[in-house]
Amino acid sequence: MVTPDDLRRIAGRERIGLGMIERDHAITVALMVLSKTSLSDKLVFKGGTAIKKVFYPEARFSEDLDFDSQRDVARQLAREIRRPLVAYDEGVRFTGVTVEDVRGEHARRLRLQYRDMNGYPTSIKLDLTFLEKPLMKTKKTEVKNMYDMKKIVVTTMSIKEIMAEKVRALIHVGRPRHLYDIWFLLGKHVKPTRTLINRKLSIYNETFDINSLRNATNDVGRYWETDLKALIPEVPRFNTVQSRVIKVFSKL
Question: How far apart are CA 214 and CA 202, in angstroms?
């Protein structure tokens, strides 16, 4: 059983705030519950949380969950996970699951509500996107975690496709964490491909352009420390990250 003292020890070891470790644990529990639903084979895990939970445990911490789905299963998923989440009592106390509409017809959001160890209400966003199918072969993979939770298996997007989605997200959403993730994946020898990035950008009728990427990196610079300081023990220098990313992508 995971106790508050366990979470405090992990926070000290990882040099990350206790609140982030509580959230990471809650995310792991949510993945465990979701993996046991009838919908688990129909959802494709992706995004920054997948980078950490499936591919590279040393990646930055993440706050939410992202999945691709072939259709809108938000309400069915909420029904299936609500009871086991609320019944779970090892280190996290979930209080409910709600479904929220998000802008556009190709996405839905579940909000997984829980109370932190001080009793304050908080939540995890679980976003479902059903705009497009994964372009590359998906794979069933085991979730890596620090809480001795075994045999959590989820269907996951390929790391190359996650990289391409991160490029699209940086250009169109513009958060520092997207730039960080691209830089991190480059450090793990994940090679970006223009073809894959163009296919991701095609939903906006766009193709990859280095100037658009450069402008996006410039825009996130002002929020670099603010966005990342809770997610990693030490924030790398923005100029170092930006220079590395622009250098690599200029050669595509």
Answer: 19
